[in-house]
Amino acid sequence: MKPSPDTILRTGRLKVPSGTLFWHEAGRGETLLFLHGSWQDSGQWLPVMQAMAADYHGLVPDLIGFGESTSTATVHSVALEVDALHTLLQALRTSRCVLVGHSLGAWVALGYAQRYPHQVQGVILMEPEGWADSQAGRRWRLDRWLVSPVSPLLTLAAWLGGKGRRRAWQRRRRVLRRSPAACQMLFQRRPADILAEHIDPSQWPPTVPMLQLIPSPPSPDAPDGAQNRPDLAGFQTATVPAADTPLGLAEEATATAIRQFLAATLLTPTA
User: Fold this and answer.
1) Which residues pair with residue 20 across a beta bridge?
2) Three-state secondary structure along 162-215?
3) In contact, 185 and 78? CB cutoff 8 Å
4) What was the pLDDT predicted at 176?
5) 77 and 110 in one domain?
6) Within 13 A of 2's CA, how many CA atoms are on the CB side?
7) Peptide bond into 5 cis (omega under 30)
8) Burial grade of 160 (CB within 10 A; 0-12, 13-18, 19 or more)
9) Residue 58 has what pLDDT?
10) Judgement on whether residues 179 and 205 belong to the same structural domain of the protein
11) Positive/negative CA dihedral, 189, 210, 63, 172
12) What domain range is 40 assigned to?
């Protein structure tokens, strides 16, 4: 999907208490804040943001500790990311926005909406982490072992499944180690600290509408069951074709689904 030739992509950097936040920006009108997933950076959402820039103002930051956003924090958390984003929106004098997040970015979006519901017009999620009823602890058990400096798994892999499994686990370990901030936030903190940041569906602000984008067919890496989706009144879903993109979705179809949600539920494009 190619952006409009009239799209002007801007970048910025802002010092925040936890480091320096870097972001891409384009368009004008109501603000959409796109948040990338666990093993990605802002480039994951850029094509979708640029495709919508004719009608909306898009912000795509690198979360603190990811991409070009530097970190001075010794411990990364959802609260730390929420604080940095709030500082960014204050600096840009943005009083309201729609949050769009994938995976870890969806968890940050949910945390932001719970803390600042008056500022959030809606939340759009894909394969979200951080629901209180999710099975994240089980899903991340293997990865926790793989990133451990004294992990015996690579040695055991040859016994359990031969060279093929060992190579697969080595590839997975390289992916995980490229994002130490994500590893820490998802499974390397104290379990009590991680659970304290989980989102309780029963406490969700009723004034903040939500949409979940569901890939079709489902991603093999997605959580079991209903793709980590809680049972919430008013919770909307949209099916988007899966694709070989950083987002895992067809980007043009994703932009269309977001536009439809905004038009029907929240916002109208700037004339």
Assistant:
1) 15, 70
2) HHHHHHHHHHHHHHHHCCHHHHHHHHHCCHHHHHHCCECHHHCCCCCCEEEEEE
3) yes
4) 85
5) yes
6) 3
7) no
8) exposed
9) 97
10) no
11) positive
12) 10-134+198-266
What is the token pair recorded at 257?
């689904």
Q: Where are the extended beta strands (E) located within 40-174?
A: 57-62, 70-71, 97-102, 120-126
Segment (H or E) for 75: none
* Residue 229 within any structural domain of the chain: yes
Strand partners of residue 98: 32, 122
Q: Which residue has the tokens 């729609």?
A: 98
pLDDT at 224 over 60: no
CA 59 to chain centre: 13
225-257 pLDDT, tens per residue?
344 455 454 578 899 999 999 999 999 999 999
- β-bridge mates for residue 61, sequence order: 23
